[in-house]
Amino acid sequence: MEDNNASSSSPQPPHYPARLIIAPTKAAISTVLSNLILQSCHSALQQPNNVFTIALSGGSLPTFLEQLPEAFTKANIDPQWEKWHVLLADERCVRSSDVDSNLGAVKSSFTNGVGIPSAQIYGIDEGLLGSSEDVAASYQENVVKYLLDKKNDGRIDCVLLGFGPDGHTCSLFPNHRLVNEQTKWVASIDDSPKPPPSRITLTLPFLNQFCRQIIFCGVGESKRPILQSVFTKVEEGVVELCNPALYPCGMVRPSSLHDNSLVWVVDQDAAGNNVKE
Hints:
8-stranded mixed sheet; globular
């Protein structure tokens, strides 16, 4: 791993605002996320292209989506699952049957229980697993570009990300060369500080330029120091992000700036007493 300064390749506004939602408990996170995704989906399906694109991280994050179908039912809104397209924000270079697969986590916790066509849930090309670079290039060309072409505005509608106690998000780690990637939308990594070492990930240029809404989710006391380092000002549910950003998760700042372009959803354990709505 190269020891480069963890700074985004794209210019950062001096006062970038984000919405902060603090759920009282970890259990309440699911309801908050479901309502945000419901709103994003409903808005996207009103557009002429009439499709909803969403990028998801793996790990434990998909478990928070288990209440999503119920949220649509309560809101009396048809989710129109057949119009959903689900891609991965990052993936480990393993087969989908592997315990480390993010696609496997997304399927088992979410998509297996709803009516999204399997052809619209986009995993990696497992025939290319011998080269993470080839896997990344294929995903960029055959999945990411393909889905952007489906949108009139050329943006993914919603991205749901986690962040680690070290401040990483997707497979973008502090002090790694990938945080300085400027041209690729999907990049490979073979020296991940977390196993497994070989992965692919959406990059900061893609997240910041081609995503309409990004939602971060974090729970537990281990995330508290990161939140305290990412936010410089908190006032009435709106935060400002620190400049320069100290961690990759703080470098994610969508260029399509609107009220919900960047939302951080955390529980009270993660927020602590120093970060309040």
